[in-house]
Amino acid sequence: MKKARLPDGSHVAGRQNLRLLVQLRWIAVLGQVLAIAVAMAGFSLALPLFDMALVVVLLVVYNCFSQWRLKWHLPVSQIELFLALLVDVMALTAQLYLSGGATNPFIFLYLLQVALAAVLLRRRTTWMMAGATSAAFAGLVLTRHHGYTLPLDLGGGLDSPFVLGMLVCFTLNAALLAAFITRITHNVRTRDARLAALRQRASEEEHIVHMGLLASGAAHELGTPLATLDVILGDWAHAPAVAADPELGQDVRDMQAQVQRCKTILSGILMSAGEVRGEALTRTTVTAFLDGLVAQWRQAHPSARLKYSRRIDSDTVVIADQGLRQMVFNVLNNALEASPTLQQLTAVLDSGRLTLEVRDQGPGFVQDVLRSLGKPYRSTKGQPGRGLGLFLSHQVARSLSGTLSASNLPEGGACVTIRFPLSALTPEDADEPVE
User: Which residues span the membrane (predicted)?
Assistant: First the structure.
């Protein structure tokens, strides 16, 4: 059987965050090209075009490498994200040095790098990024910069290159922070949700292991007294007093049948726990498996009124899975308890997916059970330790790469639906005929 696996949450979030930095860097490249063109064509500023173009080309080369790196299915570390942001800071510092230094209004783009670091990185590396941008700012102030010095004309309105640059820088900071930090936050929340799902699954699987050990131990312990009862009943069956009393003889035979049934149930528990060695998996067909399952359940519950229908056009060779059998039994048992007068099982095979639907005419599920479907000990019977039937059924459905859902019917009653791909029960040699 194939088990679904969740990808690691931090791995996915790290790759998504690096992809966002790549996208942001393409925007930065486009913005630098436009800013250089507007400064030279619109304001006739004598900028060192060759040097600034070289910085843009190097940034493009690094971004192409980063985009190629994303094709490697490797985790993205905090150091890698820090180095990516540091490259952006170095490129921004070089462009500022070539176009006015600290007098360039785009110097406030350093704040964007610090804000991204605060979201993406841990505390230590965030402070390292804050120190790097502060050092770059101080270096631009203290170092004799290359090229044109922008006039600090604050009263010229939008005709002033400095005022216009500040407006564009503020707009860029606001827009990029709103867009990218929102997406980064979504990535972080998705990662946390995945990690929470993994922790929940690990807890549930540990719970199942404990129950499996308990069931296996109980099966071993009950084997001895059942064998003793079987021997004693066999002796009684041949006793003269029992042979002379037909009614008493029938009672003994009924007790023998029930003991054999108990031994069969215990054997099934041990088989499900993997403790029965040397027995080959039973090959059958999907229709024979379902028909036999229903016949076995009806035999165990002679008073039940189960309506059974299946719509399966083409029969398929499958493995008689004990977990699936027990899952359907659990759901049918719940339907019988809720609605002793009528139960309904419908099996449909469509596009390689098998759907089993169990309906009853009982009072239906309470909303708390529907909201916590798949959690252990969620029962409306008011008895300690109950509420494991649907939980175990949910785990079996998930182990088959399927789902188990429950709902209340508009006309009254409840419906439990089990869906899974039939390939989860299909053996590798499915083309061979069933003996």
Answer: 20-39, 45-65, 77-98, 104-121, 126-142, 162-181
Reduced to 3 states (helix: H, G, I; strand: E, B; else coil), residue 374 is: coil
Q: Spell out the alpha helix ranges (H) of 238-321.
A: 240-244, 246-272, 286-300
For 219-255, the pLDDT digits (tens) are 667 777 887 888 888 888 888 888 888 888 888 888 8
Q: From residue 239, how far is each of 28, 64, 243, 257 by CA, in Å?
A: 97, 91, 6, 18
343-350 and 283-285 beta bridge pairing: unpaired
Residues 6+ positions from 233 with CB-CB distance below 8 Å:
252, 255, 256, 259
- Taking CA 231 as the corner, what is the angle to CA 226 and CA 237, rounded to the nearest 5 degrees? 120
Give tens-digit pLDDT for 329-362.
Answer: 888 988 888 888 889 999 999 888 999 999 998 8
CA 289 to chain centre: 31
Query: Which residue shows structure tokens 């709103």?
Result: 178
Measure the CA–CA gap between 352 and 287, rounded to whole angstroms.
Answer: 14
Determine how many CB atoms are found less than 10 A away from the CB of residue 21.
22
Of 30, 23, 127, 35, whose CA–CA distance to 84 is shortest?
23
Q: What is the pLDDT of residue 58?
A: 93
Q: How far is CA 280 from CA 274, 322, 327, in A?
A: 12, 13, 21
Tokens coding 60: 């493009």
Question: What residue type is assigned to position 326 of the chain?
Answer: Q
**Could you tell me if 133 and 118 are in contact, meaning their C-beta atoms sit under 8 angstroms apart?**
no
Collapsing DSSP to helix, strand or coil, 332 comes out as: helix
Average pLDDT over residues 144-152: 57
Pair of tokens at residue 221: 């312990």
pLDDT (mean) for 97-119: 83
